[in-house]
Design brief:
Length: 169
């Protein structure tokens, strides 16, 4: 028992890995996104996420954008709690009939200019749930979608590339 306790103080936990070196491609894309957002909006890009009925895989990848590896807060990209402060509405999952009204209210509360991004295959076209009685076909059936980011789920790098393409257009 004493040996196990001593080893726990000297050994690094199994769940923590050494920090990965910063990927120069991610840093380049994030810096480019910040420059284009500031040129277009005069400030960084604010994102509001609405889970319209997903399996949470896309949310996990979106949350990864805030972790220390990607750390997009330093480039002006940030998630906001209120739609009144958002520039981009990220929709994940097929839009369920129960979430349709909440999604519309969130969109209506956002100030102009505003963009809608369908994140993942389910939000883009309904995915596996397209024919379900409880779901719409995707975010485009409810809102005007400006960008679709394909994948099940899309990687954080794909999400960053998509946001860069959105601001560049």
């Amino acid at each position: 028992m004493r040996r196990t306790l001593f080893e726990s103080f000297t050994r690094r936990p199994f769940t923590e890995k050494l920090a990965a070196p910063a990927d120069p491609e991610i840093a380049r894309m994030a810096a480019e996104l910040d420059v284009k957002a500031r040129r277009r909006l005069g400030r960084g890009l604010s994102l509001r996420l609405v889970d319209a009925g997903s399996c949470n895989a896309c949310e996990l990848e979106l949350n990864a954008l805030s972790n220390p590896y990607y750390d997009l807060e330093r480039f002006g990209l940030r998630f906001v709690a209120s739609p009144r402060h958002a520039d981009v509405l990220l929709v994940t999952g097929p839009v369920t009939k129960n979430m349709r009204e909440a999604l519309l209210r969130t969109y209506d509360a956002m100030p102009a200019p505003k963009w809608v991004v369908a994140v993942g295959d389910c939000a883009a076209c309904g995915g596996l749930y397209a024919g379900s009685y409880a779901c719409e076909r995707g975010a485009a059936a409810v809102l005007p979608v400006d960008l679709r980011i394909a994948g099940c789920p899309p990687s954080p790098t794909q999400l960053l590339e998509g946001l860069l393409a959105l601001v560049a257009s």
